[in-house]
UniProtKB/TrEMBL annotation, chain A:
This is Xanthine dehydrogenase family protein molybdopterin-binding subunit. It comes from the Bacteria. SMART domains: Ald_Xan_dh_C. InterPro entries: Ald_Oxase/Xan_DH_a/b (IPR000674), Ald_Oxase/Xan_DH_a/b_sf (IPR036856), Ald_Oxase/xanthine_DH-like (IPR016208), AldOxase/xan_DH_MoCoBD1 (IPR008274), AldOxase/xan_DH_MoCoBD2 (IPR046867), AldOxase/xan_DH_Mopterin-bd_sf (IPR037165). Pfam families: Ald_Xan_dh_C, MoCoBD_1, MoCoBD_2. Keywords: Molybdenum, Oxidoreductase. Residues 19-135 form the Aldehyde oxidase/xanthine dehydrogenase a/b hammerhead domain. One of its GO terms (molecular function) is iron ion binding.
TrEMBL record, chain B:
This is (2Fe-2S)-binding protein. Pfam families: Fer2, Fer2_2. The lineage of its organism: Bacteria, Bacillati, Bacillota, Bacilli, Bacillales. It comes from the Bacteria. Gene3D superfamilies: 3.10.20.30, [2Fe-2S]-binding domain. The keyword Iron applies. The keyword Iron applies.
Length: 781, 169
């Protein structure tokens, strides 16, 4: 039989999706279902003087309207779930609806429930809210100033937290021969899954059970947090994540909106559906990034790097989101040295409240920012000392034999060989020849540039002990149950909860290979807290490394028990049993065999089991890894800049990633493509714009530039395989690598192209206008 | 002052269907909520994402931008009308074979748009496919495998002379 793990199999989940038989939130129709809409603040910062709902209540079909005051004492605030210790964290309570003051455009003011999709909107616009506007705090640097308006009256200088890690001896910086100082802004971007958020609540007054379907990347976290907010036992709250149209971090967070829907369904005793509009996604769903990075990189003229000092000023928005505080601290601050052996590092992070929508984890969460600053700084350093940027990278790489390697911030990188993907990338691309061509083209006045990004990323959340130590309000182990039916068909229950990653296929491959049964005999169940006892969801590229490992271990346990039954039936000692390709046989006794299906039947019928063995063939694993995993790789971008228009064209893009064991190369490549598109989106097009009044100017896909097909060349991908020692699959994590690596690769390429103009940095996104301006200004000098 | 509901009658995926709706009902909502064909999705409300694309009288239309009443009397094809699990349309085969989808939310609309493209151009180049994708947004796939999927579908169609939807059958 051919190997299943590592095979390029097409996905099990596709037949239903390509025939229109997916089951997404808005497809749910329940008898008597009502629709909900949330009236949101048009102001960034204002006092609510009064809310008049009289007219709205009279509108056809209206069933109920709730304001913040109505809910006071009935629903608690929605807490943040990452209370990073040692940083004087000040969490302001976020009530599901604003009570007397709104703090961002999109802050919920009233919840309207009515019969019908259109009726609820009609009614919503009849609510009359009288506001008294206040000056808003916009932009993190300004909002920290003494005279800035306060988002929360009792939080001084709007500082939500101040975190620090790492020490650099003064003389290291003072004695450095070279010091690069550069400020980078990682602009705010919108996760923008094509399916917006949604929640549907249904309450059974007889049993007291509340079922909440919602777009959640981690239904068990939703259950845990919402059971507190709604004061309902976890046993009575069932959270189901149906098919989901993407997440990208935007659906990790527990939002006020889901709490509201659950509350209304229980209060009214009727099902309630809320579907976020696209404009709400822009105003009310958590954003990613929004970090100002002041970076100093120190070293010698010969290219030896000695220290990196970073200050991150992070716009957390008006409230702390579910994962928000961890992103710019733990996720970012411990990774600032990237894949380099830099002896000293320090990171200081300010989390700043502003009158904008909260920010949370977005694909990569902190690691793309960390990679960006180090990869950009490396290029600047190389230029300063007149060294080839690739040579500087190589010189400072952590070497293969140094793994496991502890970086300057104390993280233990599991395994690595940074030269390997780089070498492979250079096999795909003739660098020396490129430099010659570049010289030629420059003479002709053409601006072509190359950018490297050699990255490493922390993935696979990851030891629960560590999670506790860093203030994460949950565990990060993973749960899987492998249940074998009497026929020998298998259902796998997993606590990860995918939304496009294809777990049914990849996890199925792990099980199929171990059990020697067809993929079609395996079904995966996820996303339902009633079916799965516990789990921690899908984010941070943790699914295969942690969830897949749990599946693998549970499968091993099934095999172990099945062996005992087979041995008993074949009257042989267990030690002599061999299980291969779905057949149990006895060593040295050909013909003495049982198929996996026969044993499945025996186990479930229990007519003849070994003494003391319980019936049924089912096993569970709660896998808690010893460490994170650290995928790495090399990306190369080649771009051409049109100096007349500032337009950037990507000429070539090469991605060589090392994500440990690749279970399915097809889905892995898909993840890489998607990730790269998002990372390039950050570099070139995407970006949220608030004006000085805190008004959002990018509230639809008409003014927020999403990556389109024709913007990209064909992406050339390859993998190298350096197994992780921290899980038996050897898997690392792939969902975020493309996003992490591509943004600096593109930026470095554009800066390389603009070298003749002496331009050091342009703020992302690199719109043609900005690039054109930078060129024109430098020409004017 | 209530405006009376109107009866909208269409032939959708080969079947005559009708439902009484408010005159302002969007075609997308009519198809999804009133006719119960939930394969067509809504992603943006502003006619940018293409997730709601369907074929009306042989033309690709963004059903979030059209009123149901405007489609009265027309012939509509949605993703459900392309093919079923046992008899996939070439475009569906292409998307499955080449991993042209991840979350699958944009996919029905993208496939309809691509059926429209192949109708005009049965042998498109990569560049032409990418241009043809201008009206749709997929956040998951990075588009490359969508391009592959469309090429694959085009090839199957050329080889088997499968008829496109919206043409005389
Ligand atoms: S929903 Fe119709 S184009 Fe986006
Ligand atoms: S597959 Fe998810 S948006 Fe296209």
């Amino acid at each position: 039989m051919t190997k299943v793990v590592g095979a390029r199999l097409k996905r099990k989940e596709d037949p239903k999706l390509i025939t229109g038989n997916g089951y997404f939130s808005d497809d749910i129709q329940l008898p008597g279902m009502l629709h909900a809409a949330i009236l949101r603040s048009p102001h960034a910062h204002a006092m609510i003087k009064s809310i008049n709902v009289e007219e709205a209540l009279k509108a056809p079909g209206v069933v109920a309207i709730y304001t913040g005051k109505d809910l006071e004492g009935k629903i608690g605030p929605v807490p943040s779930s990452w209370l990073v210790p040692g940083c004087n964290l000040k969490e302001a309570p976020q009530y599901p609806l604003a009570i007397d003051r709104v703090r961002y455009v999109g802050d919920g003011v009233a919840l309207v429930i009515a019969e019908g999709r259109y009726a609820v909107r009609d009614a919503m616009y009849l609510i009359d809210v009288e506001y008294e506007t206040l000056s808003p705090a916009v932009g993190q640097k300004q909002s920290m100033q003494n005279d800035a308006p306060l988002v929360h009256d009792d939080i001084e200088n709007n500082i939500a937290f101040h975190w620090k890690a790492g020490e650099i001896p003064e003389e290291v910086c003072e004695n450095a021969e070279v010091a690069i100082r550069q400020s980078f802004y990682i602009q705010r971007v919108a996760p923008s899954p094509i399916e917006t958020r949604a929640a549907i609540g249904q309450y059974n007054p007889g049993s007291g059970e509340l079922t909440l379907w919602c777009t959640s990347q981690n239904p068990h976290i939703h259950r845990m947090v919402l059971s507190g907010v709604l004061e309902i036992s976890e046993a009575k709250l069932r959270v189901i994540a149906p098919d989901m149209g993407g997440g990208f971090g935007g659906k990790i967070g527990v939002y006020p909106d889901e709490a509201l829907v659950g509350y209304a369904a229980r209060d009214l005793g009727r099902p309630v559906k809320w579907i976020e509009e696209r404009i709400e996604h822009f105003t009310a769903s958590n954003y990613g990034r929004d970090e100002v990075l002041d970076v100093e990189l120190f070293g010698k003229r010969d290219g030896t790097l000695s220290a990196i000092r970073v200050k991150n000023t992070h716009n957390v928005g008006a409230y702390l989101s579910t994962m928000g505080p961890g992103v710019s601290t733990i996720d970012f601050g411990l990774m600032v040295t990237g894949c380099y052996k830099i002896p000293y590092a320090s990171c200081e992070t300010f989390g700043v409240y502003t009158n904008t929508t909260p920010t949370d984890a977005y694909r990569g969460a902190g690691k793309p920012e960390a990679t960006y600053q180090i990869e950009r700084a490396i290029d600047l350093f190389a230029k300063e000392i007149g060294m080839d940027p690739l040579e500087l990278r190589r010189k400072n790489f952590v070497q293969k034999e140094e793994f496991p390697f502890t970086n300057a911030q104390g993280l233990l990188y599991d395994s690595g060989d940074y030269e390997k993907p780089l070498t492979k990338a250079l096999e795909m691309f003739d660098y020396n020849k490129f430099r010659e061509t570049q010289k030629e083209l420059r003479k002709q006045g053409k601006l072509i540039g190359i950018g490297f990004s050699t990255y490493v990323e922390l993935c696979g959340f990851g030891p629960s002990k560590v999670a506790g130590a860093i203030g994460f309000q949950g565990g990060v182990w993973e749960n899987a149950t492998v249940r074998v039916h009497p026929s020998g068909k298998v259902t796998v229950y997993s606590g990860t909860s995918p939304h496009g990653q294809g777990h049914a296929t990849t996890f199925g491959q792990v099980v199929a290979e171990k059990l020697g049964i067809p993929m079609d005999d395996i079904e995966l169940v996820f996303g339902d807290t009633k079916a799965i006892s516990m789990g921690w969801g899908t984010y941070g590229s943790r699914s295969v490394a942690v969830g897949g490992t749990a599946v693998s271990i549970a499968t091993d346990r099934v095999i172990e028990k099945a062996k005992k039954i087979a041995a008993h039936e074949l009257e042989a000692p267990v030690e002599d049993l061999i299980f291969e390709k779905g057949i149990f046989s006895v060593k040295g006794a050909p013909g003495f065999e049982r198929t996996f299906q026969e044993i499945a039947k025996s186990a479930n019928m229990a007519w003849n089991l070994p003494e003391g063995l319980e019936p049924s063939l089912e096993a569970q694993s709660f896998f808690d890894p010893e460490n994170f995993v650290y995928p790495f790789g090399t990306h190369i971008a080649v771009v051409e800049v049109d100096k007349e228009t500032g337009q950037i064209e990507i000429k070539r893009y090469i991605a060589v990633d090392d994500v440990g064991r690749v279970i399915n190369p097809l889905t892995a490549e898909g993840q890489v493509h998607g990730g790269i598109a998002q990372g390039i989106g950050q570099a070139l097009w995407e970006g949220t714009v608030y004006n000085e009044d805190g008004q959002l100017l990018t509230g639809t896909f008409m003014d927020y530039a999403m990556p389109k097909a024709r913007f990209f060349p064909e992406i050339e991908t390859a993998f190298t395989e350096t197994l992780s020692p921290v899980n038996p699959l050897g898997a690392k994590g792939i969902g975020e690598t493309g996003t992490t690596a591509s943004t600096p690769a593109i930026m470095n390429a554009v800066m390389d192209a603009l070298e003749p103009y002496g331009i050091k940095d342009i703020e992302m996104p690199l719109t043609p206008e900005k690039v054109w301006r930078a060129i024109s200004e430098s020409e004017g000098k | 002052m209530a405006i009376e509901n109107v009866n909208v009658k269409v032939k959708i995926n080969g079947k005559e269907r009708c439902a009484k709706v408010e005159p302002r009902t969007l075609l997308a909502h009519y198809i999804r909520d009133d006719l119960g064909l939930t394969g067509t999705h809504i992603g943006c409300d502003t006619s940018q994402c293409g997730a709601c694309s369907v074929m009306v009288d042989g033309e690709v239309v963004k059903s979030c931008t059209v009123l149901a009443v405007q489609a009265d009397g027309s012939e509509i094809t949605t993703v459900e009308g392309l093919g079923d699990v046992n008899n996939l349309h070439p475009i569906q085969q292409g998307f499955w074979e080449k991993h042209g989808l991840q979350c699958g939310y944009c996919t029905p609309g993208v496939m309809m748009a691509m059926v429209g493209l192949l109708k005009q151009n049965p042998n498109p180049s990569d560049e032409e496919i990418r241009e043809g994708l201008e009206g749709v947004i997929c956040r998951c796939t990075g588009y490359q495998f969508i391009v592959e999927a469309v090429k694959h579908a085009a090839q199957i169609m050329r080889e088997t002379e499968v008829q496109l939807v919206g043409e005389e059958r």
